[in-house]
């Protein structure tokens, strides 16, 4: 979030809505972020939070008669939202590339992997077919696929899940883009392959100097690879900070929930994970006030009426959060959660009514009284 240099990508007040028979889906609701050259931004949130729509809109893939888009997406001084389809095609796959969520459905089953890689190259370069094939072999080797001279003539179904994901990465890197968007690049892969894919993206980023946006529902995935993290909920960014700061002192109850649901090696094996209660809200009929309030353990009456804005944490302008809880209370709750205290017990720190009720109830209860 530093302003010392010019961002490669600068998104301002982006809003994306889809008109459906059931109503208007507010998929992205006024988000802003920037990505500096050579850095990595992690966008984290549950399914339906607007992560993928944001990046698909950056690629120009959400345009349609039922779609309403406003705001700006500046890439090297050009607003991508104002470009024509032909202008976007020159950028898409060449300067901005995307690894899509499901590699099996993203690769065409009727065409060999090498042919699909070559098509990506020939669409933006004046190379011969032979040169494009050689480049495809080099790309497969670059992403760690063994025996690339043979694999280049195989079909997607002949690749394992991890190899298909590597082939998608090779396709995205074919023209050495300045920005790589990786949408859930480790979904449905086993833990070992996940680590290999993340290490590969980091290695290629260092080699090519590209910026990366990595989209995931798992904070653990971006812990080592991202420089900054934006946490999205119900189409909005509710917290944004550099990675170390966010893991050391998260400020939003939703971020606390995501962190507490990550398996840890330093906890007892029989300790259960703590899920976030409730379900993500409808983006057609959104909750009043803070959109997270129906699921928040620390909700008070004002949270149901007042919509919090994304604002800097007091004393830390590089850390932004959208939460009505006072900063001192948030800090005390997070210390309690780290110490293993349950959210129900910590609720009294945030809600005066809960604290008053707790102090009025004797403990242990009198004989015959309610437990």
Your description of this structure?
By secondary structure, this protein is an alpha/beta fold. The protein has two domains: 243 residues, Rossmann fold, CATH 3.40.50.300; 69 residues, no CATH class. 33% of the residues lie in helices and 21% in strands. It is built from 14 helices and twelve strands. An eight-stranded mixed beta sheet has the order 6-7-8-3-9-10-12-11. A four-stranded antiparallel beta sheet has the order 2-1-4-5, covered by helices on one side. Strand 9 and strand 10 form a beta hairpin. The chain is globular.
The dominant shape is globular
Largest sheet features: 8 strands, mixed
Number of helices: 14
Low-confidence blocks of residues: 354-371
Helix-strand sequence: EEEHEEHEHHHHHEHEHEEHHEEHHH
Q: In the CATH hierarchy, what is the superfamily of the largest domain?
A: P-loop containing nucleotide triphosphate hydrolases
By CATH reckoning, the class of the largest domain would read Alpha Beta
Average pLDDT for all residues: 88
Gyration radius, to the nearest Å? 23 Å
Q: Give the domain tally.
A: 2
Structural class: alpha/beta
Measure the end-to-end span. Answer: 49 Å
CATH topology of the largest domain: Rossmann fold
Strand content: 15-25%
Explain the layout of strands and helices.
Layout: E1 9-20, E2 23-35, E3 40-44, H1 51-58, E4 67-75, E5 78-79, H2 85-91, E6 96-99, H3 103-106, H4 113-122, H5 129-142, H6 148-151, H7 161-172, E7 179-183, H8 191-208, E8 211-216, H9 219-222, E9 228-233, E10 236-242, H10 243-248, H11 253-260, E11 311-313, E12 316-321, H12 327-338, H13 343-350, H14 352-360
Parallel strand pairs: 3-8, 3-9, 6-7, 7-8
Antiparallel strand pairs: 1-2, 1-4, 4-5, 9-10, 10-12, 11-12
Helix pairs in contact: 4-5, 4-7, 5-7, 7-8, 12-13, 13-14
């Amino acid at each position: 979030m530093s302003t010392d240099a010019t961002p490669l990508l600068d998104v301002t007040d982006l809003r994306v809505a889809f008109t459906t028979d059931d109503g208007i889906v507010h998929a992205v609701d006024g988000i802003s972020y920037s990505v500096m050259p050579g850095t990595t931004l992690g966008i984290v949130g549950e399914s339906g939070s607007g992560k993928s729509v944001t990046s698909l809109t950056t690629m120009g893939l959400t345009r349609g008669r039922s779609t309403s888009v406003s705001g700006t997406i500046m890439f090297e001084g050009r607003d991508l939202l104002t470009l024509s389809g032909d202008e976007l095609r020159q950028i898409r796959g060449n300067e901005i590339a995307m690894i899509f969520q499901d590699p099996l459905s993203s690769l065409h089953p009727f065409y060999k992997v090498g042919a699909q890689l070559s098509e990506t190259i020939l669409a933006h370069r004046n190379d011969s077919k032979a040169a494009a094939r050689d480049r495809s072999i080099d790309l497969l080797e670059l992403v760690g696929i063994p025996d690339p001279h043979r694999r280049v003539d195989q079909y997607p179904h002949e690749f394992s899940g991890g190899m298909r994901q590597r082939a998608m990465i090779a396709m995205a890197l074919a023209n050495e883009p300045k920005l790589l968007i990786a949408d859930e690049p480790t979904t449905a892969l086993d833990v070992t392959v996940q680590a290999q894919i993340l290490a590969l993206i980091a290695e290629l980023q260092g080699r090519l100097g590209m910026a990366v946006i990595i989209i995931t529902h798992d904070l653990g995935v971006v812990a080592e690879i991202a420089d900054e993290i934006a946490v999205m909920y119900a189409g909005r960014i509710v917290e944004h900070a550099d990675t170390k700061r966010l893991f050391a002192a998260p400020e939003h109850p939703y971020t606390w929930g995501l962190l507490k649901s990550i398996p840890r090696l330093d906890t007892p094996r029989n300790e259960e994970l703590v899920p976030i209660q409730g379900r993500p809200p409808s983006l057609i009929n959104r909750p009043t006030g803070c959109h997270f309030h129906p699921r928040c353990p620390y909700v008070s009456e004002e949270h149901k009426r007042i919509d919090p804005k994304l604002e800097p944490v007091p004393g830390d302008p590089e850390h932004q959060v959208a939460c009505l809880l006072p900063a001192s209370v948030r800090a005390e709750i997070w210390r309690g959660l780290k110490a293993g205290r349950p959210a129900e017990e910590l609720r009294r720190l945030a809600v005066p009514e809960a604290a008053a009720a707790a102090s009025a109830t004797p403990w242990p209860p009198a004989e015959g009284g309610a437990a």
